[in-house]
């Protein structure tokens, strides 16, 4: 195993299970699974996240790079566009982003978060 090369895979760690906070839930009963493969001092995280259908409010104080691996979701910014994202799409959500995330088909993404 290399100290400087890390494969992002669900095989390397156990999944954490979660859901949106009740006060952020808009519709459905979405459930999350997160495989946080990397965690570094200074608030850097990388891994894989998956959510089942539903809709909830999102509020970003952090910077996040996302790459959609599978599924279909709609990410809508308050006062702005609603964007449909699907397998192959990559994007960044910057600090200050406010809006909603709606999973239409179970969605899995790779992520890198910097607090």
Describe the structure.
- The protein is mainly beta.
- It has a single domain (16-114), classed as Sandwich (Jelly Rolls), CATH 2.60.120.10.
- Helix content is 0%, strand content 62%.
- The chain has no helices and 9 strands.
- Strands 1, 2, 3, 4, 5, 6, 7, 8 and 9 form a 9-stranded antiparallel sheet that branches.
- A hairpin with a 3-residue loop joins β3 (32-40) and β4 (44-51).
- It is globular, with a radius of gyration of 14 Å.
- The chain starts with 15 loop residues before the first strand and ends with a strand.
Question: Can I get a quick summary?
Answer:
This protein is mainly beta and 115 residues long.
Q: Tell me about the largest β-sheet.
A: 9 strands, antiparallel
Radius of gyration: 14 Å
How many beta-strand segments? 9
Distance between the termini: 27 Å
Second rung of CATH, namely the architecture: Sandwich
Protein name: Cupin domain-containing protein
Organism: Mesorhizobium neociceri
Domain (S)-ureidoglycine aminohydrolase cupin: 39-111
SSE diagram, text form:
Layout: E1 16-18, E2 25-28, E3 32-40, E4 44-51, E5 54-59, E6 63-77, E7 82-86, E8 90-93, E9 98-114
Question: What are the defining features of this structure?
Answer:
115 residues, RmlC-like_jellyroll, nine-stranded antiparallel beta sheet, RmlC_Cupin_sf, mainly beta, Jelly Rolls, 62% strand, UGlyAH_Cupin_dom, Cupin domain-containing protein
């Amino acid at each position: 195993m290399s100290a400087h090369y890390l494969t992002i895979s669900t095989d390397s760690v156990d999944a954490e299970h979660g859901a949106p906070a009740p006060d952020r839930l808009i519709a459905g009963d979405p459930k999350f699974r997160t495989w946080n493969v990397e965690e570094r001092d200074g608030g850097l995280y990388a891994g894989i996240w998956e959510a089942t259908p539903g809709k909830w409010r999102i509020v970003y104080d952090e910077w996040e790079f996302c790459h959609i691996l599978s599924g279909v979701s709609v990410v809508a910014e308050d006062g702005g566009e609603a964007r449909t994202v699907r397998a192959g799409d990559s994007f960044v959500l910057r600090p200050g982003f406010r809006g909603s995330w709606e999973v239409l088909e179970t969605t899995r993404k790779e992520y890198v978060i910097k607090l």
